[in-house]
Amino acid sequence: MPKAANWLEQMRSVVGPKGFTTANEDMAPWLTDWRGRYTGAAVAMVSPANTEETAAIVKIASENAVAIVPQGGNSGMVGGATPDISGQSVLLSLRRMNRIRAIEADGQLVVCEAGVVLQNLHEALAAEGQRFPLTLGGKGSATVGGLVSTNAGGTQVLRHGTMRSLVAGIEAVLPDGSIYAGLTALKKDNRGYDLKQLLVGGEGTLGIVTAATLKTVPALVDRCVAWAAVGSTDAAYQLFRFLNARIPQSLEGFEIIPETCLDSVLRHIPGTRSPLAGTHAWHVLVEIIRDQPDAQDPGSVTEHLLADAMEQGLIEDATLAASEQQAEDFWKIRESIAEAERASGPALQHDISVPVPGMARFIDEASPVLEEKFPGIKIAAFGHMGDGNVHFHVKAPEGVQAQEWMRDAAKQITPLVHDLVIAAGGSISAEHGIGQNKRAELERLSSGARLSMLRAIKLAIDPKNIMNPGKLVPLASGQ
Fold it and tell me: Which of 211, 279, 302, 448 has the fewest CB atoms within 10 Å distance of its CB?
């Protein structure tokens, strides 16, 4: 590493004492990832207050070949915002950059900085009669910059798409310290490569997203949330097809949940209760919305559709939320599954996707393959049936030593899960990114063409490899 005193002092002078620290006690909370799987070290943590300060910091880092690890809410799932253990990198926090610069209700756009927390964005837009149609369990800590950089998904992808579909413009600092000013939202822009889409999902390896122009939609007039029981994964898929064919513009959520996950939530999450009496193999959580006053009442629509579905034998039982609080209670069950599964014992969690028509088949066929090969494990598969995203949890056998099993099992079980995903035409990362957790698997399972393009883009834009090194892109040996 270059002599530290000079460039560190330069960075300190850029951001001032509020935005600079080398104290271990100040940095410690941000050096371990949310899951507690990765812990790194940093020579300093720098927190710029605006884009110009960010650019100045990156320029200093570039001139001195110092690695930078950008970080938002530190709520990622793949170790993408955690520095390595060398202690030679700078952790760059974007949490001070938390202004909503403009809400353009007429144009259905919002311009906000990278450090804006998702829940705060939701609340600010609601006051203007708008909403940002992406939500997830960690909305209280996840930031806009992190959502953009990981191409986040969530429960509304079915209707609105991932962040790639919701980002209309980006402002970012590139590895040489220059500023890419691309916040203007243009319906047509045919100047070659779509540069903003290189940064969406780039995990900070090509530049630091400092602000984004996001698409908004009208605030909800009302919604209907329903809970239905089905006899199989295929029945769940057939119910999805049935609903999506009839109300594609108002079907906003369709989640599939096994009885085992529901039981885990009821046992471990206080204040939860089963929406239906009895036990059922599979459950479906459905949300149907109205965002235009002259549209049909979603409660009546949902009631009639589910009655028709029951007559056709697609569902075994169903109930509609009788109030907004009950609707939130239904969603709490879905959003608490990961927490409940952690409380019930160690598990390997896989965020994967397969083609939507093959999701039911994948769950049915992959689960017994794993359970037969590794006796004692149990599969808990749930997720967004409308977009093919499976959260595929492999639960440890009873009585194992958690850390030892997680370490050893990951080496055998995760590659097999990923092999099955690729064989089904899917992806080993649906909505959480690659980070450092999946980089080796990305290299193992990617074609030569994909790898060469990833490496070429990375090396062309960041030839010094200072932007979040060791994440996402599996560089060739010696690079």
Answer: 448
Q: Which stretch of 73-82, 103-112, 206-215 has the lowest confidence by average pLDDT?
A: 73-82
Please tell me the distance from the alpha carbon of residue 137 to that of residue 198, in angstroms, as a whole number: 26
Phi first, then psi, for residue 147 (nearest 5°) are: -65, -40
pLDDT given at position 5 = 60
Q: What is the pLDDT of residue 477?
A: 59
Domains present along the chain, CATH in parentheses = 4-93 (3.30.43.10), 100-218 (3.30.465.10), 222-337 (3.30.70.2190), 345-423 (3.30.70.2740)
Is the pLDDT assigned to residue 4 strictly greater than 50?
Answer: no
How far lies 43's CA from each of 37, 86, 174, in Å? 21, 9, 21
Strand order in 251-258's β-sheet?
Answer: 317-320, 222-230, 282-290, 251-258, 378-384, 389-395, 347-353
Q: Say which DSSP state 150 is in.
A: T
Q: Is the pTM of this model over 0.90?
A: yes
Cβ atoms within 10 Å of 35's Cβ, excluding its own = 15
| Average pLDDT of the residues in 315-344 | 94
- 32 phi/psi in degrees, rounded to 5: -120, 135
Alpha-carbon distance values, 259 to 365, 379, 413, 478 (Å): 18, 12, 23, 49
Q: In the structure encoding, which two tokens stand for residue 248, read together?
A: 């594609």
How far apart CA 207 and CA 68 sit, in angstroms, is: 10
Q: What does the DSSP 8-state code read for residue 355?
A: -
